[in-house]
């Protein structure tokens, strides 16, 4: 696991891209991740699923532009690639065995090519739409919770169409998409957005960026505004809704929007939510607590606090004083260590390390400062977070029963 003396990171600018490189000691692979702060929450009426479809089209186009060589070479050298769409950002990543130093710039350029403006035809849309339908069907059929609660969680907080639909539970807009409609979506969202690149490998960060010919000056944070304005004035809930997806077992969630403490640094706000959910899970058997739809380090949605369980009784945020005083210190240390372990696990692999660097750059969060903030968090701060969270109004989300299955 990384230690203070081992974590080295350098940030520079190259045109539209903010590139962050970091060394992973003794690594035998190179991880690259490209993040654009655009996702499903940026869709408008009639665009449900356009962010996911655009991800597919851009990923495919990058392969076409390189004559299939990017994917072919990744596979040939024993690497893997992936692309994912989230509410507030999209990631394009791959990891390969560590190349020769002279080849580093070429691989970084191939990663950046993932976000080149794609050529779009009706055939492309039909082909990628078919793949998306298969992906969705597989996800819904193989998971007992079928995407619950993340598919509809933001809809509990906002009635805005862009936050309520994401093209997973309803594919109608994808099926009706035209090249012109997708081009308008990309022009409005992707084209003006900054691009954040994360690179992790066994080399000096300065060496990697020197080879790439990046500007020497330190860039400003790539998109702090994307973090602070992610929810904007869209929060008009919370509401009480039924999920748009059916689950194999009944599920219920309590969903709260918990604003960052006034004046708190972004890394501190994430640190507090990370530790608080570990505390809550330790003292709330039968309920699963999470900060963010996919984790507290995935972007501004760490401010969404979700408690889920398979029955619908009131799901209240556990309080510091609910736990006997003689156990609080032990449980706090346990929760803090679990949060640190989760960060260290991501930083120990070049693939997840690069993805974290790119996400953090896209939202203006200093990666190592967040780990330091977790280590420096006090019990009093978690007590305050839990009290603040409990005071926030909660909406609810209940899952739909599978077809033909009654609800008791």
TrEMBL record:
It comes from the Bacteria. Pfam families: Peptidase_M16 (PF00675). Residues 26-137 form the Peptidase M16 N-terminal domain. InterPro entries: Metalloenz_LuxS/M16, Pept_M16_N. Coiled coil: none annotated. GO terms for molecular function: metal ion binding. Gene3D superfamilies: Metalloenzyme, LuxS/M16 peptidase-like (3.30.830.10). This is Insulinase (Peptidase family M16). It comes from Williamsia marianensis.
